[in-house]
Amino acid sequence: MSIAPTGSSRRPRPTDQAEVRRHNAAVVLEALAARPRSRAQVAAATGLTRATVGSIVEELIAGGLVTEQGTREPRGRVGRPGTDVALDPAGGAGIGVEVNVDGLSAVVVDLVGEVRHRASRPGDQRGRRAGEVLRSAARLVDDALAESERQGLRVRGIGVAVPGLVDLDAEVLRVAPNLGWQDVPVLERMAKAGRGGWPPATLDNEANLAALGELWSGGHSGADSFVLVNGDVGVGAGVVLDGRLHRGSRGFGGELGHLTVAPDGPECRCGARGCLEQVAGLDWILRSAGLEPRGRSDAVPALLAALDAGDERAVRAVGDAGTSLGVGIAALVNLFDIDTVLLGGIYAPLYPWLEKAVQASVDRRVLSAAWAPIAVRPSRLGRDAAVVGAAQSALRDVLADPLGVLAG
Question: Which domains does the chain have, with CATH numbers?
Fold first, then answer.
């Protein structure tokens, strides 16, 4: 896995010499995030002079963000051998934490996008107080920090993914219907419960971070506009347009799970009826397949085993969920004219049994499908998309402003 560059063409134009250098350093680091290159290749890829690239590379090496690799012969064996430079994996790491209905998880991701540590605490979080859950999440952070130190990784930040509406400015989870939480200052409570000495932390919606994780990890044939549908007990969506996450005017966009698809359907925890997650979420699938959803960490493996065995009830449950899911996805595609849909969370391992139903439902309801087919694919990161995206989000400042990070 690698953290894909964001594209220097989208950067604001710098206005003074110091800003120019910081801008150029970010451009150089983006070029190296794509793959190791010689200084000459970086200059050719970025349009910067060799002298500028050489000076910046030396500064990045001194700061521990870039390292030199072995020399190689030039093409045609003419000229001096070149020395490749690359991101230094130990130059930065991000910790990602996901608070979900069915458990907690944490990862450490290094500067080149490799997962260096992974831990989870499965278990139904419904009925537990927010403070109790967040104390458990804080312990995962403390353990991840200790493991990062053991591996010689410098943690640059922490990203926390939560289900529900997140007020980014206030750093507050406004509402998480499936957890029964309202107005919870997640970061504040986690920091108080931790051992102290934490790097900066940020909070975001789990579907948004899952979509960003997929975008930053690359591997989707250059698609920079897509919908990532993250399914679990709840259903969320992250909408990426031209390489940027679409959050909506107040940052509350992407609540696909609360799109009404069956007006006379079951009541949702949000107070409405017939929400998508009530007819396509994990609990509904498990119940329809004859499995007990609540509090069982083995429910998903049991569902997958039943599907592998061709159990008719399980196959029908997933197919019905796929049909409903396609209704919600088609609405997003009709609104945003997106040609790629990624199924993440629980939908990734269920993809072989979901694909046909989702695709058929989408094709029937998307007006442009006959002329512009919609690709429905599994996410690359699967159920790890949100927690990996959270960890990667903590590293974006390094890639966007490496000299600023080093100066800080």
Answer: 8-87 (1.10.10.10), 92-209+387-407 (3.30.420.40), 221-379 (3.30.420.40)
